[in-house]
Q: What sequence folds into this?
């Protein structure tokens, strides 16, 4: 089972284009474990930049109809020859770094890509061939840069002069490499068959082990045998891992693919074990066999319980996660306890008094996200209210009516008879001033002032204060 390019994958990687793939000009599909390249030439005809590095692609295919493609990056894949790029008329840059290209003569297919300026072949077996760079420079006249090194005019002239001899050497080295690859493929096939046979035997032994376990389970030894079986399997897996990683293996497309599938198999096995443990996990006991309700806080949330005597109700404040969707909460109020399921995890609390479930209400705080459950008590309590005198009520009513009529703010009235502060205007006695300056005081005012102070004696030796 190989992984290929899917429409869902392309749409997910086209978020920068509002998930529209028909007008997509650039897409990155690196590290997606792709083993077959297809559909892109049908879905994304306007592609200019395509990143496919670090996948498991063995062959360049289904990109020939991308007429506008300018940059193709297929580094770190399992490609063994250059092909099917003749239709990419606008191709300017091709990155084939760290692949398995041994057929160097396959670069002749790039002659038709007249706009190709940069080519990267670093990390391929063909780069170890004698005369590799001269052959590429002489074959691709349009190339300006090879393996990040600019091609000079003198280098191209020299490569063209020695082209027949270099081409012959490249052909011989190619044939030797292809024979080596044939042996590697046979060895990989043999090793894969051995691993399959070993796995088959292991599965058969596990089945026999499980059947013996079933007999022993009848003798009430299930727990002990399960523990031994788990230990045995763990040791066996560790030993298998050690052998796999320590075994010397040539770096080939087959070994790279085998390593990837081995890692994927181990990951899938761990996921299956984790899922089985989740299924086997015992359910949380909320009510005992005797009918006793237990206090449970599986989600481990902070909470507070308030007894509101004034309103004769109980208020539970549960510190639910602020950004948790309300649809993931399930509240169940019973007369003697309350149960809240937070993402399926139960929170249960026994109430100190009996409440009315039908009259209870639950709300979420918009600021903190807390869940506030208000539960009226079943027993109603009548509280004595403080008596207020009728006179005060009557005066308050009159004051409110006056304020309502006038529409003004209420002011404090002060009785002038109870005014106890001294009159600072009468501290100094006024004296008759006649003929001094332009101000002439009337005699009647001075007479009145004198009359108001009967006990005052006017001593002329004392100078005036003003």
A:
């Amino acid at each position: 089972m190989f992984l290929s390019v899917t429409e869902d994958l392309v749409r997910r990687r086209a978020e920068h284009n509002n998930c529209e793939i028909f007008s997509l000009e650039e897409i990155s599909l690196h590290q997606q474990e792709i083993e077959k390249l297809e559909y892109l030439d049908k879905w994304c005809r306007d592609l200019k930049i395509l990143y496919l590095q670090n996948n498991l692609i063995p062959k360049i295919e289904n990109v020939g109809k991308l007429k506008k493609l300018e940059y193709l990056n297929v580094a770190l894949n399992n490609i063994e020859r250059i092909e099917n790029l003749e239709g990419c008329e606008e191709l300017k840059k091709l990155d084939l770094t760290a692949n398995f290209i041994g057929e160097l003569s396959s670069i002749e297919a790039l002659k038709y890509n007249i706009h190709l300026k940069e080519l990267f072949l670093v990390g391929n077996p063909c780069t170890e061939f004698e005369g590799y760079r001269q052959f590429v420079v002489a074959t691709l006249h349009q190339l300006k840069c090879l393996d990040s090194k600019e091609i000079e005019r003198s280098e191209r002239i020299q490569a063209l002069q020695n082209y027949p001899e270099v081409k012959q050497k490249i052909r011989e080295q190619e044939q030797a490499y292809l024979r080596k690859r044939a042996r590697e493929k046979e060895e990989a096939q043999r090793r894969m068959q051995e691993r399959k046979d070993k796995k088959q035997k292991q599965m058969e032994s596990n089945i026999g082990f499980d059947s013996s376990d079933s007999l022993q389970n009848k003798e009430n030894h299930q727990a002990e045998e399960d523990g031994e079986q788990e230990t045995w399997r763990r040791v066996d897996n560790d030993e298998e891992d050690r052998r796999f990683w320590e075994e010397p293996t040539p770096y080939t497309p087959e070994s790279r693919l085998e390593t990837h599938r081995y890692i994927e198999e181990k990951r899938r096995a761990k996921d299956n074990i984790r899922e089985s443990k989740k299924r086997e996990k015992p359910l949380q006991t909320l009510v005992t066999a005797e009918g006793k309700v237990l206090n449970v806080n599986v989600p481990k949330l902070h909470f507070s319980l308030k007894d509101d005597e004034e309103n004769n109700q109980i208020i539970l404040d549960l510190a639910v996660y602020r950004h948790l969707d309300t649809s993931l909460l399930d509240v169940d109020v019973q007369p003697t306890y309350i149960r809240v399921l937070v993402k399926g995890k139960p929170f249960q609390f026994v109430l100190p008094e009996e409440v009315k479930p039908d009259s209870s209400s639950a709300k979420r705080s918009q600021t903190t996200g807390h869940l506030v459950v208000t539960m009226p008590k079943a027993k109603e309590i009548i509280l004595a209210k403080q008596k207020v005198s009728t006179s005060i009520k009557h005066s308050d009513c009159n004051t409110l009516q006056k304020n309502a009529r006038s529409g003004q703010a209420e002011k404090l009235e002060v009785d002038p008879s109870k005014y106890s502060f001294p009159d600072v205007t009468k501290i100094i006695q006024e004296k008759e001033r006649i003929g001094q300056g332009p101000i002439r005081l009337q005699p009647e005012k001075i007479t009145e002032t004198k009359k108001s102070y009967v006990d005052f004696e006017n001593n002329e030796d004392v100078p005036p204060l003003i």
Summary: Residues 1 and 35 are 9 Å apart (CA to CA). DSSP finds nine helices and 15 strands in the chain. The chain has a mean pLDDT of 81. The two ends are 116 Å apart (CA to CA).
